[in-house]
Amino acid sequence: MSTQKVKEAAPVVAEEKLDFKKVLPIFIVVMVDLLGLTIIIPLLPLYAASLQISPFLIGVLNAVYPVAQLIGAPILGRLSDRYGRKPVLIASQVGTLIGFILLGFANTFVLLLVSRLIDGFSGGNISTAQAMMADSTTEKTRTQGLGLIGAAFGLGFTVGPVIAFTALALSGNNYRAPAFIAALFSLASVLLSIFWLKETQDPTHRNATPATSVFNPTAIFKALGNPQVGLLLLLAFAQQFAFGGFENVIPLFNVSRLGLNASGNALVFVFVGIIVVAIQGGLIGRWSRQWGERKLIFAGLALLTIALALTALTPAVPTPWYSRAELQTELHATQTSATTAQAGAQVVLPAEANKGWGGLAWLLLAMIPASVGGGILQPSINSLITKRVTPQQRGEMLGTSAAMVSAANVFAPLVGFALFQTVSISSPFWLWAAVMALLFIWAIQRLKPGRETVGVATPS
What does pTM read for this prediction? Predict the structure, then answer.
C-alpha cells in the first residue's frame, strides 16, 4: 500500500518543477524582441530633440506608445485565443519590425509619431507571450514561468542600453544606427518565432472560444466586474502607477538629491536589473510554491511601500566625485535644443558641500526592497489571474492586465513629473508610498482565496 502511494505521488512532485526545455523558446523570443525595445527607449528623447521637436511634443511621443499598447494588448490577446498564439505573435513582431525601420528613416515628428504608434500597438504582444507561458506551465509552476517573462525584461533593460551606446560610439553618435540595430533584433525574433517556437494553445480551447468582436472596449469594464479577477486587474494598474512612475522619476531625483550623472544613474539601474533578474528568473518560482501568489502580492505591496518611503528620505549627500560645474556642463552638452536647455534649468543641483557615501548607500539600500517588490508583484498578479479564469480566457485576461499596465504607464510619469516640478522632488515618492500602503491594506482585506483553490487536496 505504501509503495503504491509513493508511485502515485511521484508524478505530482515532477509537475512542480518548471520544464525549462519547454519554455526556453518563449523566453528567448521575448528576450530578443525586448532587446529592440530597450535599445530605443533611452535614446528616443534625444532622437526627437535632434529633430528640433519641442519638449511638449516629446512628452506626447512618450505617451503615445503606452496608449497604443493599451488598445493593442487586449485585441492581440483575444485574437490569440481565437486563432492561436503563434500566428498572432509573429504578426505583431512584424509590426514592431516595421515600426523600427520607420523610426530609423524618420525625419519629422509625424513619422516618429507613426513609428511609435505602430510599435506600441504591436508591443501589446507581451500578453500573447504571457498566454503562451501560461499554456506551457502547470498551476504550480505558472508564477515561475511568468517570472521568466519579467526576467527577460530585466535582462533587456540591462543589455539594451549597452548595445545602444556601443552603436552610437561606433557610428559617431548617429541616432539612426540604434533604430536599425533594434530592427535587426526584431527581425531575429520573427525568424525565431517562425522556425523555433511551437504553438502552445490546445486547439480544442481555441475552437471553444466564443466568436466575440476582437475590439471590445467594454470587455475591460466587464473584466473589472469579474469577482475572481477584478481586484487583481485594479492591483495591476495601481502597482504599475506607483512602480512605473518610480522608474521614470528616479533618474532626475538622483541628479537633484545625489548629483548622479547619466553614468551613475545607469549603474543604479544595472544594480536594480540584476536583482530583478535573480528574483524573476529563479527565486519567484520557489517562493510561489512555498507561499502562494496571494502572499507574494501582499509581500510585494509591503516592500514597495517601504522602498518608496526610504527613497523619499534619501539624505541630500552628493557622491564623493560630484562636481556641480561638470554636471551642469553635461546637462547642456548633449544637445543645444530647447529640450536640454529647459531640462538644465528645471533640475536643481545639490551644493558641493557635505559630499560623501551616505546618500548613495541609502539609495542603494532602498533599491533592494524596490527591486524585490517590483520583481514579484506583476508575475504573481498575472499568475493568479490565469488560475482564476478558464484556459479559453487566458489570452483576453492577460491582454486586459497588460492594458491596465499600459494605462498606468500613461498617467504615472505625468503625475510624477508634475509633483516633482511643482511641489518637491520627494513628493512623488511619498504619494506612491501612500498608494502602495493603501493597496496593501485593501488587498489584505479584499483579496481572498478564489477559484485557484478549488479542487486542491488538503493534507489529512
Answer: 0.66
